């Protein structure tokens, strides 16, 4: 609150003010970026004076599944040598056959994660194909990195 006031903003509860076809005023989207599968703010309707707390398309890097899909496109376009910094990822149920084949040929530990959760919620380590879920919801399964890159001794997201 102090930071917002120091920046010259006032905190006001209520709905957006409308000016003809444009939204004006501050737009503070409280839905966590990890819960989104699309932009919740109509950025095209915002007036040039509007203040926002996110960039269009931010959900693409905030969700593990969307990040992997974008990363694979970048690998295809610019080559694997330039995009070799994320662990191999499979998105279930879409990639289940491919993952089962990989797990059978190369036994190792994998980390299974919900695509839109954070702080370790819902994470499971697996090493056998019978531990894979049988559900329709998207699940990310990545190669487990036992010695990850750390910042000041701490792990960071993605």
Q: If you had to describe this structure to a student in words, what would you say it looks like?
A:
With 158 residues, the protein is an alpha+beta fold. It has four helices and eight strands, in the order αββββααβαβββ. The radius of gyration is 20 Å and the shape is elongated. About 4% of the residues have low confidence.
Q: Taking all residues together, what is the mean pLDDT? A: 79
- Per DSSP, what share of the residues sits in E-state strands of 2 or more residues? 15-25%
Low-confidence stretches: 16-21
SS summary, helix count: 4
- State the share of residues found in helices, binned by percent: 10-25%
Span between termini: 29 Å
Topology diagram in text:
Elements: H1 2-6, E1 17-19, E2 22-24, E3 26-27, E4 51-52, H2 59-62, H3 64-78, E5 89-92, H4 96-105, E6 110-113, E7 124-126, E8 139-143
Parallel strand pairs: 3-4
Antiparallel strand pairs: 1-2, 5-8, 6-7, 6-8
């Amino acid at each position: 609150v102090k930071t917002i006031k120091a920046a010259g903003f006032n905190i006001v509860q209520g709905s957006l003010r409308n000016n003809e076809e444009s939204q004006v005023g501050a737009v503070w989207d409280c839905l966590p970026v990890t819960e989104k599968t699309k932009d919740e703010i109509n950025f095209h309707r915002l007036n040039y004076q509007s203040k926002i707390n996110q960039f269009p398309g931010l959900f693409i890097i905030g969700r593990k599944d969307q990040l992997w899909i974008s990363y694979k496109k970048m690998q295809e376009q610019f080559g694997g040598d330039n995009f070799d910094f994320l662990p191999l990822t499979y998105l279930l149920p879409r990639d289940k056959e491919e993952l089962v084949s990989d797990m059978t040929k190369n036994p190792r530990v994998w980390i299974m994660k919900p695509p839109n959760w954070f702080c370790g919620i819902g994470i499971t380590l697996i090493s056998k194909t019978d531990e894979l879920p049988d559900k329709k919801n998207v699940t990310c399964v990545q190669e487990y990195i036992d010695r990850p890159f750390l910042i000041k001794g701490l792990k960071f997201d993605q």
